[in-house]
Amino acid sequence: MSATIIDGKQVAAEVRAEVTREVEAFVERHGRPPGLATILVGEDAASAVYVGGKQRACAEVGIKGFDHRLPADASRAEVVALIERLNADPDVSGILCQLPVPGHLDGVELTNLIDPDKDVDGLTVASAGRLALGLPGLRSCTPAGVIRLLDAAGVAIEGAEAVVIGRSNLFGKPMAQLLLERNATVTIAHSRTTDLADVASRADILIAAVGRAEMVRGDWIKPGAAVIDVGINRLAEPPAGRSSALVGDIAFDEALAVAGAITPVPGGVGPMTIAKLLDNTVQAARLQAGED
Ligand code: NAP
């Protein structure tokens, strides 16, 4: 058996096409596009690349980008004033503060100052609480992207045994809650889980978000399971027979022989994160405009 490969680039392109159509319809109804404000404090090179990618993606789908860059020594008061101004700006539908912020600032505190109705990353305490209580709200982009990939691949979530390896606030916890919301039976595994291989082998849906290259082996996987690899690990050089030095948390070649469906790294979960960010920005704009 060889697993079906779930093509994240393809599904992300579909989400972006839907978002483009929704943006056009929003402009027709309101005479202005949804807007996404990004805040980057300092000159961290990787963060600058991420923010640049998000702004470019906005332009491609017709969302208006507001690209705010502050120097590395910006004071807390300056960043707070900017967030408060963006919270009050009706042209700004979504706000994200790129993390990490320089050491004299508190990224968690700053993120929590974002109006929950504009929290397109889904990272504020209010958004986490809304998710935990099953209330409507903006959901974290990467876990929401995984749900979309499972749906696109025709994986039945309701009633499935789902195992999420990793319990971070950024991914593992919201992922587990989104699966629960869809009526999966969910186990969250982490570094203190005893006999992880045994826990993983129960999963109809196995999701790994650890950050350890190829940690999940083929013999941990239930035959036919849907396997979602969130991990991004850069090796010194590409593994034999591959062009990219990026690998996931799943031993891909081993898993391919056992799983029913699997996401590759790169080209699986990664492309979904920005696609869902764009989707969240449109959803936020519609909510603020009093639509559904
Ligand atoms: P994180 O905050 O470092 O969390 C890692 C989790 O893995 C923790 O819950 C940790 O358990 C668990 N863990 C560590 N070693 C383990 C082991 N040996 N066995 C079982 N569990 C173990 O990382 P994160 O932010 O969730 O990200 C995880 C990975 O996903 C990273 O590679 C990251 O780059 C990637 N990621 C990708 C995207 C994307 O594609 N857009 C988005 C988010 C994250 P404890 O809690 O017990 O320490």
Automatic annotation (TrEMBL):
Residues 6-121 form the Tetrahydrofolate dehydrogenase/cyclohydrolase catalytic domain. Belongs to the tetrahydrofolate dehydrogenase/cyclohydrolase family. Pfam families: THF_DHG_CYH, THF_DHG_CYH_C. It catalyses: (6R)-5,10-methylene-5,6,7,8-tetrahydrofolate + NADP(+) = (6R)-5,10-methenyltetrahydrofolate + NADPH; (6R)-5,10-methenyltetrahydrofolate + H2O = (6R)-10-formyltetrahydrofolate + H(+). Pathway: One-carbon metabolism; tetrahydrofolate interconversion. Catalyzes the oxidation of 5,10-methylenetetrahydrofolate to 5,10-methenyltetrahydrofolate and then the hydrolysis of 5,10-methenyltetrahydrofolate to 10-formyltetrahydrofolate. GO terms for cellular component: cytosol. The keyword NADP applies. One of its GO terms (biological process) is tetrahydrofolate interconversion. NADP(+) binds at residues 166-168, 232. Keywords: Amino-acid biosynthesis, Histidine biosynthesis, Hydrolase, Methionine biosynthesis, Multifunctional enzyme, NADP, One-carbon metabolism, Oxidoreductase, Purine biosynthesis. This is Bifunctional protein FolD. It comes from the Bacteria. One of its GO terms (molecular function) is methylenetetrahydrofolate dehydrogenase (NADP+) activity. Homodimer. CDD domains: NAD_bind_m-THF_DH_Cyclohyd. Residues 140-288 form the Tetrahydrofolate dehydrogenase/cyclohydrolase NAD(P)-binding domain. Coiled coil: none annotated. The keyword Kinase does not apply. Its EC number is 1.5.1.5, 3.5.4.9. The gene is folD.
